[in-house]
Fold this sequence. Notes:
2 helices, mainly beta, disordered N terminus, 14 strands, 14-stranded antiparallel beta barrel
Amino acid sequence: xxxxxxxxxxxxxxxxxxxxxxxxxxxxxxxxxxxxxxxxxxxxxxxxxxxxxxxxxxxxxxxxxxxxxxxxxxxxxxxxxxxxxxxxxxxxxxxxxxxxxxxxxxxxxxxxxxxxxxxxxxxxxxxxxxxxxxxxxxxxxxxxxxxxxxxxxxxxxxxxxxxxxxxxxxxxxxxxxxxxxxxxxxxxxxxxx
Length: 193
C-alpha cells in the first residue's frame, strides 16, 4: 500500500496554516498515486487519500470493509471507521441504510445513461449528488461540489459551509466494479464528512 503524506486529516475541516514549503507539490502527489488510490486535494492544502481494493477502503483516516450482508438478500454491508466515526451501513438493490457516527445514512441510488445519482441522507445531512464521465456534482453531506472531469481527475469548486475553494478528486477505476449503492455510500463517506 502506498500512502501519500496527509496534510490535513478531516475531509470537511478547515485546514490550519498554509502547507510548508517542503510539502509535496500537486504533480508529485498525483504522480505518486497508485492505481487503486482515491485522492482529494484542496487548494487549502487539505489532502485525503485512501487505497480502494476489492472489498476494502484503507487510508490514514478511513478503514472500511465491504462484506456480504447477513440479510440473505444479496446486499452488502459497509462497516468500519471513517474520520473517527463508526460506520455500519447495509446496501441492497438501489439503496443504502445505516449509521455513521450516530447519524443516519439513507440513500436511494439510481443509474441512468448519464451515470449514477444518489439522494437521501449522508451523516444526517440532506444529500443529492451525481457521478458520471463528465462531472461529480451536487450536495454530499455538508459539502457541495461542482467538479468537471479533466483527464483522470475531477476538478472544480467545493464548499463546506464557507467560501468555495478549488479541489481535485482522483477516483480509482476499482470503484467502478462496486455495486451502485456501495459506490454511492463510499463517495458519501469520503466526500461528505
